[in-house]
Amino acid sequence: MKYLEKLKAKWEVQSNFQLAIIFVVFAITGSASMVVGKYVRPALGISEYTMAPWLFWPLRIFLIVPIYQILLIITGTIFGQFKFFWMFEKKMLHRMSGGILFKDIKETTKL
After folding, report:
1. Which one-letter DSSP state was computed for residue 26?
2. What span, in angstroms and rounded, lies between the C-alpha atoms of 70 and 51?
3. Do 21 and 79 touch, CB atoms closer than 8 A?
4. Cα separation, 5 vs 12, whole angstroms
5. Are 50 and 44 in contact (CB under 8 A)?
6. Angle at 19 between CA 67 and CA 92, to 5 degrees
7. What is the DSSP letter of 45?
8. Residue 53: helix, strand or coil by DSSP?
9. Could you give the CA distance from residue 19 to residue 14 in angstroms, rounded to a whole number?
10. How far apart are CA 10 and CA 98, in angstroms?
11. 86 C-beta neighbours (distance < 10 Å), count
C-alpha cells in the first residue's frame, strides 16, 4: 500500500479509483498496440517469414512504439484521463528525443 501512495504522489493522482483507471488504460493500450501492429506489419511488408530476425525485430519494435503512443492518448481520453496521459506522453517523448521535443517540459514535472 505504501508503494501506491508514493505512485499517487508522483503522478499527482487524487484517488485509488483514478490510479486503477490509469492502470487499466496502460493494460488495454499495451494489448491493443500488439493487435493493431499485427495488422499493420503485413501491410508494410514486415514479416518474420520473409525477413531475417536481426531486421524483423527492430522494425517491429520501431513500428509498435508510435502505435502505442497514439493508442495511449486515445484510450486515456476515452477513460477521461487525457490530461494525465498527454503530460505522460510529452514527458516520455521529451526524454526519448534527448530533450529536443517538448522543450517546455520541466524536469521537475513529476510524471
Report:
1. H
2. 26
3. yes
4. 10
5. no
6. 40
7. T
8. helix
9. 8
10. 22
11. 14
Model confidence pTM above 0.90: no
CA–CA gap between residue 18 and residue 49 (Å, rounded)? 43
Q: Which three cell numbers stand for residue 22?
A: 490509469
Residue with cell 505512485: 7
The alpha carbon torsion through 82, 86, 92, 93 (nearest 10 deg) reads 140
pLDDT 10s digits, 10-69: 898 989 999 999 999 999 999 999 999 999 998 888 888 888 999 999 999 999 999 999
For the beta carbon of residue 94, count every other beta carbon within 10 angstroms.
19
**What distance in Å separates the CA atoms of residue 85 and residue 69, rounded to the nearest whole number?**
10
Say if CB 51 and CB 75 are below 8 A apart.
no
Q: Which residue has the cell 477513460?
A: 79
